[in-house]
Amino acid sequence: MLATLSDRRQFPDEGWIFERKLDGVRVPVVREGGRLALLSRTGRPLDDTCPEIVAAPAAQSCGDFTVDGEIVAFTHGRTDVARLQQRMGLTRPRQDVEASGVAVTYYVFDLLRLEGQDPTRLPLRTRTSLPRRALAARSPLRLTPHRNAGGAELRDGIPRHPWFLSLRDDRKPREVVRERAVTSV
């Protein structure tokens, strides 16, 4: 589910999960029957654009899963969608991708299928713990950290990165509220 912008300022800790908003491209990864695919939202394969991302899920001991995540590029420790765009249209791994100099990282934030089972009916708090048990986080694959409490502190404590996501734990599929943090310039 895509995030929706909200002016909501209060998020009670109970019933919500919090995470930082990454500025990247949302990409599901499917590994099934010995095949692996990175797919754009429109279903276009991204395997040639991000060969290092393909290699990370392919190396997992778990052989059957679908995860939802985001491909990001960093500038000075911060996700940078403009830098990522320099990489996303490239499809010739040796000539273009390697020469671009844009390293990418894949952040997993949800597990949609695991060994033939559908975990999407589980409460989100339970489901966000599953990737940590099923997948090994090795570069360039990372697991998105979630906080179970302290949404206001998270929102107010990130002036250099003014977006955060609040996720309803009791909603299936995940309900995401994107909020602009209050910052002073």
UniProtKB/TrEMBL annotation:
InterPro entries: ATP-dep_DNA_ligase, DNA_ligase_ATP-dep_cent, DNA_ligase_ATP-dep_CS
Keyword Transmembrane helix tagged: no
Domain of life according to the entry: Bacteria
Keywords: Ligase
Location of the ATP-dependent DNA ligase family profile domain: 9-135
Homology family: Belongs to the ATP-dependent DNA ligase family.
Matches recorded under PANTHER family: DNA LIGASE 1, DNA LIGASE 1/3 FAMILY MEMBER
Protein name: ATP-dependent DNA ligase family profile domain-containing protein
Species name: Streptomyces cellulosae
